[in-house]
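REQUEST ID: PR-0412
SUBMITTED BY: lab tech R.K.
PRIORITY: routine
TASK: structure prediction, single protein chain
INPUT:
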Amino acid sequence: MIVTPLQYHAVAVRIGQLANVAAGTEAAKELKILTRLLVEFENRKLQGPHANLKGA
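STATUS: complete
OUTPUT:
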């Protein structure tokens, strides 16, 4: 689970390093896991306390 912006940045950098790996490799598995973690973090941020404010 990514919790902090520093962790988010580290994962984003690693995803960039893995961007062109071959399918079916351990690196591709790592890329898939890290991407999922990053998306989950983004979704949690979007569902934060101000996510439902309209017209703000």
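NOTES: Residues 5-46 form one domain.
REVIEWED BY: pending
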